[in-house]
């Protein structure tokens, strides 16, 4: 797997925080990340073969198994060995090895044939890709016609009531807590900045449409802190 210099830097950063990644997600989202994932997963069909892009420690893949029928298979792909190792341990502990397979790979160039999956989902990973549009195109490529492409991601809040507190939390509180728990000074500063730099929900909807996805809609969750975008392959 050959990654660009910038992607390699991000890969190393995620690998460095892998041991505390799940704990930090719970704390920094005040437990809301579970609800966000459940909502995103609920947009998938009840059965099929699904791709979890940038699976990390496998939370989305596991959620799919918990919320759907037993007639489900999930492949999760990520560029961090350390994240995947954590995910494999969770999957084994839950007894989901038959249903979930995790693999190492570059999510910008998915190593799967066209029209392989019934749906593809990415949670909190699209903003880490060097080219958002290309990443979405790759997800659409490997999904069968009428299959769904789903993106769960943080947003820039535009509500006057919540904008300033949210900005303060992103730029001051989140990096400080992240540093204290993970011991990594720069990792959560990067994550905060990546949220601020990410397209707003309407812009992301337009990017998804430009890849050929149809009926693209989005749902704002928890005062607009996150958004779930859903598009259908032609």
Can I get a quick summary?
The chain has 234 residues and is α/β, with parallel strands linked by helices. The chain is 46% helix and 22% strand. It has a single domain, classed as Rossmann fold.
List keywords for this structure.
234 residues, alpha/beta, Rossmann fold, 7-stranded mixed β-sheet, 7 strands, globular
Notes on the structure:
This protein has 234 residues and is of the alpha/beta class. It has a single domain (5-157, 199-232), classed as Vaccinia Virus protein VP39 (Rossmann fold, 3-Layer(aba) Sandwich), CATH 3.40.50.150. The protein has nine helices and seven strands; from the N terminus they run αααβαβαββαβαααββ. Strands 3-2-1-4-5-7-6 form a seven-stranded mixed β-sheet, sandwiched between helices. β1 (48-53), α4 and β2 form a beta-alpha-beta unit. α7 (160-182) packs antiparallel against α8.
Question: How many distinct beta strands?
Answer: 7
**CATH level 1 name:** Alpha Beta
Element-level helix/strand string: HHHEHEHEEHEHHHEE
Which range does the strand content fall in? 15-25%
CATH H-level homologous superfamily name: Vaccinia Virus protein VP39
SS content category: alpha/beta
CATH architecture: 3-Layer(aba) Sandwich
Strand arrangement, major sheet: 3-2-1-4-5-7-6
- Summarize model confidence as the mean pLDDT: 91
Low-confidence stretches: none
């Amino acid at each position: 797997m050959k990654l660009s210099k910038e992607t390699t830097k991000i890969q190393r950063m995620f690998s460095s925080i892998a041991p505390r990644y799940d704990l930090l997600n719970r704390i920094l989202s005040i437990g809301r990340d579970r609800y966000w994932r459940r909502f995103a997963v609920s947009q998938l069909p009840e059965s099929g073969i699904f791709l979890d892009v940038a699976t990390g420690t496998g939370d989305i893949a596991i959620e799919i198994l918990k919320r759907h029928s037993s007639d489900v298979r999930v492949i999760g792909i990520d560029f961090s060995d350390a994240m995947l190792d954590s995910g494999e341990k969770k999957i084994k502990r839950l007894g989901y090895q038959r249903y979930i397979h995790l693999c190492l790979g570059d999510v910008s160039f998915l190593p799967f044939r066209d029209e392989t999956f019934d749906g593809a989902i990415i949670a909190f990973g699209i903003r880490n890709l060097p080219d958002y549009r290309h990443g979405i195109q790759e997800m659409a490529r490997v999904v069968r016609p009428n299959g769904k492409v789903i993106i769960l991601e943080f947003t820039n809040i535009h509500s006057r009531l919540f904008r300033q507190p949210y900005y303060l939390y992103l730029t001051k509180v989140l990096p400080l807590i992240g540093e204290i728990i993970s011991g990594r000074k720069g990792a959560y500063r990067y994550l905060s900045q990546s949220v601020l730099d990410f397209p707003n929900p309407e812009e992301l909807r337009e990017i998804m449409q430009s890849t050929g996805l149809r009926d693209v809609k989005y749902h704002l969750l928890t005062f607009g802190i996150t958004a779930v975008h859903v598009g259908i392959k032609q």
